[in-house]
Predict the structure.
Amino acid sequence: MPRYLFIILCITLCILILLLGAIVVLYTVVPAMVRSAMAKAQLDFRSVSIEQIQTNSFRLRAQLELSNTGSIAATILPPLVIHVDNIGTMTNNDAIAITGGSANSTVVPIDAPFVISNLEAFDNFSRSLIFEPSVVWHLRAEATIRPISRYMVSYSNIPFNKEVALHALNGLSDVSIDSLSLNRSDANRILIDTVIKIKNPSVFSIDVGK
């Protein structure tokens, strides 16, 4: 075999090996790393507000915090449909950019309709939120994730299943008096102006009235 043909064959073989290695990395190694990172990631709520309540839906405004997402930056592509227990679903239609670094966390704002698929389950959750010290939401989703940069391949059907513990109202701390004034009292009557402080342990915003 001529020497130049041997060199061409070697170069072609090296290119094929590199291409095969790149394919293995892109479609086997990287998806496994992404799945592992999502499995280890932690999810928590910073705040939750329920608005525009309808018969079988309401608007959910919340701040979610993703932490322990690993050292590789990634983007969770929309739409991300999150199933909450067997209560219902919410859909996030914005991309979620995850900053690489084990010490970093990502705040995810949610402003979306929550569609209730099981009213009985939602009623049970509501009662638990009032009468229990804490409740647990089981969140399930399949995410489409693009690691590193927008030039990378996107990976679909990545499991994103999390348990989130929420403090409920039965964990309310004791009521305390923040201020007390009798300045409006006179010889015939006592008028008390007072501010009562109740610490809300839940991330749910609650209007207790006056």
